Amino acid sequence: MGSQYPQSVRVYLPLWALTWEVAFILLFLFFTSYDTGPLDGRNLQRYHAVFQDVAVMGALGLGFFTSSLRRFGWSSVAFNLFMLALGVQWAVLLEGFLEKSFTVTGKILIKLSSIHQAAMSAMCVLISVGAFLGKANLLQLTLTTVVEVTAFEAVKTAFRHIFNMNQHESMMYIHVFAAYFGLTVAWCFSKSLPKGKEGKDQTATSSSLFAMLGSLFLWMFWPSFNSALLGSLDGRRKAVLNTYYALAVSAVTAISVSALARPQRRINMTHIHNAMLAGGVAVGTTCHVISSPWLAMILGLLAGLISIGGVKCLPVCLNRVLEIHDTCGLHYTFGLPGLLSGITSIMLKMYHVSWTNSPMFDLKTQNMQSTSCD
Amino acid sequence: MGSQYPQSVRVYLPLWALTWEVAFILLFLFFTSYDTGPLDGRNLQRYHAVFQDVAVMGALGLGFFTSSLRRFGWSSVAFNLFMLALGVQWAVLLEGFLEKSFTVTGKILIKLSSIHQAAMSAMCVLISVGAFLGKANLLQLTLTTVVEVTAFEAVKTAFRHIFNMNQHESMMYIHVFAAYFGLTVAWCFSKSLPKGKEGKDQTATSSSLFAMLGSLFLWMFWPSFNSALLGSLDGRRKAVLNTYYALAVSAVTAISVSALARPQRRINMTHIHNAMLAGGVAVGTTCHVISSPWLAMILGLLAGLISIGGVKCLPVCLNRVLEIHDTCGLHYTFGLPGLLSGITSIMLKMYHVSWTNSPMFDLKTQNMQSTSCD
Amino acid sequence: MGSQYPQSVRVYLPLWALTWEVAFILLFLFFTSYDTGPLDGRNLQRYHAVFQDVAVMGALGLGFFTSSLRRFGWSSVAFNLFMLALGVQWAVLLEGFLEKSFTVTGKILIKLSSIHQAAMSAMCVLISVGAFLGKANLLQLTLTTVVEVTAFEAVKTAFRHIFNMNQHESMMYIHVFAAYFGLTVAWCFSKSLPKGKEGKDQTATSSSLFAMLGSLFLWMFWPSFNSALLGSLDGRRKAVLNTYYALAVSAVTAISVSALARPQRRINMTHIHNAMLAGGVAVGTTCHVISSPWLAMILGLLAGLISIGGVKCLPVCLNRVLEIHDTCGLHYTFGLPGLLSGITSIMLKMYHVSWTNSPMFDLKTQNMQSTSCD
């Protein structure tokens, strides 16, 4: 992702991006209008706060999170913003087209909640770009954004209709989806690229402070992300508390275990950036039903250990056997903890009947979530 | 704005600043008291949130926004904070003196909303300082702060009484006012300064990441800025949505067109820092009346193109013909998009009668805004 | 606090930290459950916002605040997060054990407000670590965290029962406690350490921008910190306003007086980082009762002067006479302004009777605060 471009990219990029923009503007002109219904002051405030937190996580958190790993930290932040701004517009349109009310009225009603939902969907592109940074130019990134947002929205809608999931649950598979989509794209790129690009994932001390800044913003605002789409107050309260405990434990685990995982006697920065977030990913699908902190803490502990363990073993098999070069450690930050989250969710549902009366898991609230959040 | 000062500045600065502070404290002692009226919990929370967002934009966003362009990035952030803290105190007093209730009771009632209004007024100094950074010392900056805040408050009050504008509209001319006030001051300084100062606007990669951080905070919190002074819930909802769409489109435009505007084959950082914010400026005066996203998106697209076009053509005529050295690109970030915003607002008002029944523009709400926001 | 460790630390640290984590998980398993009582949407939103602000201050503000002063800025941020995450878990448990309801039911009810209270208590560790940075390894920091949180909770509970203080007042002694606890630990370390470590507190320009970022976040979010534990709406409004005015004046004072305090002709960065926050510390205990801005401004002015004066005189006596090496200027940022805050509080209480009818101090509200904030 050097900022020195060949002639073709320089000329086609503006044309290409402006064509997309004009197409979006025409689609918005013909198919959308703002929601003019009555509005509660409390809802306005809540949605504004949620939308701001999601914007901070997307533009700043994920932008700086990946900025340590390349020669051009600055361009990664700018490209991240580009993909976010493009992805949000496309996701708003897609989510509108896929709603039932569109088939009836032929109009998409843009509510305040539309934007943060769309921004969360667009974040799947920002996550998966971590796997092929430095291998794609801005033209390719534009195309990836549109394709991945489309694919994610399709998968989300399928999950909601087939498995009868609510908005929150279908969104929480974003981490697994993004990680494996990113790795697949990285695998395609690794075939077409010449050798000798391995030297690019060098870190510098000053830029690793920026990456720490990005990770910290993600860490601090993750409870907002996990509770953003929940409708019931009790579900949101549990989501905030569980996510916080899981993140606290995974941060302690990451920082203390990191020194063990390396042959040299140093704490590794990249481990910690990745592993401290693993806890938030691991409680994603179940954060609104777990009703005791200890279970969230165990998930955080496991996610931290998996993430640090993955960083020790996985690069070898990924790099050498599958020839994927996972630039940002996507697989062990988002992929494996996301799978852990999915397994936990399935286990909790399987034992639903026997645990219903247990005070530890409060699965009745889960059904109350099914009402859409607006 | 080097941090090495002559003897006179070192000795007079503390005296000068402390004299201002003591004068402010005496004015506050004799003329102000806190509002002790009944208070709604929701309002407290809203005003606290708005005030925090404005503080983040002023202290952090505008502080770091200009930090890439000088040898002393750190001092620009500190001086920015100094001017913000001084300007807020003066703006609170001035706004109180200019209110009708002061002439009746002889007391300024300080409400929670006073602080964010004052902070927004003080931001005009932080914007216009971008034009004469590196040319003024801290003594001159203190004086500029007091003079500019006074001038801006006077203009704002005049606008409100002559053109019957509401608080939001009169505030939104801040960008145009700040840009041309800054350029005027820069023109005065450029005459008195010796030649050979042009080498000072060099950027460094690590500090441009800080500038990106500042720009991102401005970008993310701009919807708060544009909706802060609106009274009606519906106006605030529209303002948030329109600002967001305009910013998204101007970010995409800025990043994609930037490469075209430069003879070398590189994306330019300063262009993007400036142009990605132009969308937020361009919808400032009309964000609460536009009732379809596509118009906001078109304004964002135009603002982005104007800003990038300006950066290509304007420095030549400004630097060579008028001998103004616009250090931070104030003219094409805030000046021109602010003029676009004013023209849009006038056009919307002119066609008011013919468009009243159109669903696209909702000008009736505009009149509801006239009730003061507290 | 180099990141190169001897064998023993590398092996024992994970064992030690994971043992603590497992113990915490067991304690949470047997003694805690989430509050499942009815919940108001407004409270949920408020506590989420407060908790986020406190997290930003702890993880980001205090983390970067101390990052300028060492060779390894990155590890200071990571260690700060480690201590915060560990301290919060321990503080939640301790505060639960010390509550009356625990002795009745044998269960700790974890509410949303528990986390931000615990995070504020855990911040005493993050403040006092500034005095012995670069002298302790991560094993020692873990132990310090647990000991200091225990000591602070004990002192807080004693204050509440003996002096009949409310939650807000007992929390506001955190600055004094943390400063002198930190200096005591630094004094112990300075005896056991070999000489020749004085060269470690060098600053670099790029990392001092990070320290400025941390300071700015502390500066902007301090009104949240001072109003977080107040129950009455009027107290919170006053706390926000008073804290803001005190901070504004201390920032102006710090930046203008700084040049005087140094033999070289330069504004000193570390002075400003410290002195601009002194105002927030100085109004801590009285921010909810002061009912005119001028008194808060005078406290801010005094705190700024004390802080800059301290930085000129204190290092000499501390370093040479007492042999304490106060790495981060803890004594004059948190210690002395905290004492000023305590003295103001006592003076206001002593003159309570004669000033009760004065409009300047509103001590009746203070009694209303005694009702716990949830």
Task: Please state the oligomeric state of the protein chains shown.
Answer: homotrimer
Q: How is the largest sheet of chain A built, in terms of strand order?
A: 1-2
Query: Percent of residues of chain A in helical segments?
Result: over 70%
Biggest sheet details of chain A:
2 strands, parallel
Strand fraction of chain A equals under 5%
Poorly predicted runs of chain A: 195-202, 355-374
Mean pLDDT of chain A: 79
Give the helices and strands of chain A as they follow along the chain.
Answer: HEHHHEHHHHHHHHHHH
Shape of chain A: globular
How far apart are the first and last residues' alpha carbons of chain A, in Å?
A: 40 Å
Instruction: Report the strand count of chain A.
Output: 2
Radius of gyration of chain A from CA coordinates? 21 Å
Q: State the secondary-structure class of chain A.
A: mainly alpha
Count helical runs of chain A: 15
**Which chain pair shows the most residues in contact?**
A-B, 62 and 54 residues
What attributes does this structure have?
homotrimer; 374 residues; mainly alpha; 2% strand; globular; NH4_transpt_AmtB-like_dom (chains A, B, C); Ammonium/urea_transptr (chains A, B, C); membrane (chains A, B, C); Blood group Rh(CE) polypeptide isoform X2 (chains A, B, C); transmembrane helix (chains A, B, C)
